[in-house]
Structure formats: structure tokens, C-alpha cells
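Late entry, written up from scratch paper. The run itself happened at the end of the previous shift, but nothing got recorded in the book at the time, so transcribing now.
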Amino acid sequence: MIENIFREYDIRGIFESELNEISVKAIGFELGKEIANRGLKKVSVGYDARLSANALFEYFVSGLNHANLQIFNIGLLPTPIGYFSVFTKKFDANIMITGSHNPKEYNGFKITLGTDSFFGKDLQNLGKKVAKFIESGEKIPTNANTEKFDILSDYLDFFEKEFANLKNFDFPFVIDCANGAAGVSVKGICERLNLNAKILYSEPDGNFPNHHPDPSEEKNLLDLKNEMGANGFKIGFGFDGDADRIAVLTPNHNIKGDELACLLALNMKNPRILGEVKCSQAMYDTINKIGKSFMGKTGHSNIKKAMKELDIDLAAEVSGHIFFKERYFGFDDGVYAMMRVLELIKLGFDLDSELA
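Output as recorded:
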């Protein structure tokens, strides 16, 4: 049954029944051997706000240590900062312990080796090795020794430099972090750039006391909509639990990922845009008027692979995963997408008018 938690793009299961000391130590050990076999050594490990994060971190790191890797604890962070840690060559591999937008009893692992996602057949093969190891009955000692590393400061430095054009931008907007990991980075970015942002539910809390961290469901956007209506905000942003997905609201629109791609392309020269099968034909037609569009498979790992092969500037999923290669690294980052939307607003684009 353990192999069932090894999905197409990540590992995901219920804490204690599926993700427990035995299974997670085995995952860490078998993945650690795979990392070592690829000649990789320095591994960053982070986690989101899930209540099970600390226990799973201890189990998982114990497995990695059993495989004799050099492990760095980057702490509670949005998943994209984990990606940032390898795309900026600080580390050879990254694993984020995250349940993303799933119910709070879930958790899981998103794996990046080098700048490539670890997915598909590789994940399925890992699942078989983990099952075999568990069947052997071999015990892995608890050893959660790591070296702490502050990757958040590097990330904030990057945003402060990349978006210097937004410094002191006084346009008011509201952000709903949903008590997920987004608040860890959003607050620092807004402070450094002196942005006029009202931030809701910025404190990470795995109980998600205000609403579930899935912005694809309308009911989870009610607080954001009410805040916008009550205080006249013209733009609002919502994030999922690990901040790799974004919702963008205006007074008249809940802007889906394919619509957002069309808007973002307005500030790009001859853009090459990748969509997925759920994207509307209108997106492809619109993009082809100002650049070139492509259709690929759904799933962040498939999209990252296709972006490299097709030299894509921006990719989008309807669900709110937005991947920038132009001026960025080619992975999905909800907070980065928010900043690019703010640039559109500063340039004078009326999002509602553009979508009319």
C-alpha cells in the first residue's frame, strides 16, 4: 500500500497512517541513495506550516543522514523558496515537506534534484524501493542533525533588487496568506519595498483557523472578497498552503491562470507562452496575436520539463500555477507572480478592462 502515496508529481499521504516514522525514514534513505548515486551532495530541506512538519522533518532527515548526505535545514518556507535554493546553485537538491492545499491531516514531499523535478517513473521506482526496504525490517536510527541555512534572506534580496521599480508604490492592495507559508516571505517583501499592502492571516498555523488554504475554491476567497468590498481595494491576492499557486481578484473578476497568462504577456516582448489542456482556446488565440503559444501536459513537473525543451518565457495552469522563465528561473512561484501583476498595474493596465 505504501506505493500508493507516490504520485505522478510528488509524494502525498496522511500523517501517521501513511507517513510515519517507518515509511518516512525509508523514503529519506532510499531518496538519499538516489541523490548520492547522481553525484549530488548538498541537500536543502524545508517545510510548510503543517502540524506534522516537525515530526516528518526528523524522520526524513534521519533517512538522508543514513545515506551520508550533507543536509541543510532551510526552515518553514514557501515551496518556491526551496526551488530557489537549487536554481540559484546554493544546493544540489531540495526537498520541501508540504501538504500544499490538501486537508490538514495530509503532508508530503516535493523533490528537486539539480534543477529538475523528480517525478513520474523515477518516483514510482522510488516507491518500489521504499516498499522493499520496509519489508526488509531494517531499522534506521534517529539522527536529525542538520546545518541551518538562511535562504530566505537571499530570496528577499533578489526580490528587492528585481522589483526596485515598485519601491514605494502606493497603490493599495490586499493579500490573504491563509495561515500558510506565504506570510514568511510576503511580509518581508512588502516591508523592503514599502508597498501599500494589507496582509491577512500571515501567521503560519497548520490548523488553518480562518479558512482552508486552497484559493481554487470560491468559499476560501470570501474573506479576501469581503475585505476588498469593505475597503475599496481594486486588487487582491490569495495563496495556497505552500504559496506556489496564486488567486488574483479584481472587483469584477476571479482571474484564472490562463487569463492571467494573457495579462502578463502584455508586458513581455514576443512572448513564448505554454498552457495546459485545461486552458481556454481564447488564451491560445490571444497569445498568438502577440507571440507564440504552446500546449503541454498538466502538472508542474511536466511543465518545467517542457519549458526547457521549448524555450518558454511563461507557463500557466488554470489552477493558478504560474511559471516565469523571463527574468526568473522557470518554476512556479505565487509570490513572484503577484509582483509581476503589480508591475502591470503600475504601468497603467486596467485588468478588468483588458479582460472585458
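DSSP finds twelve helices and 16 strands in the chain.
(Scratch paper discarded after transcription.)
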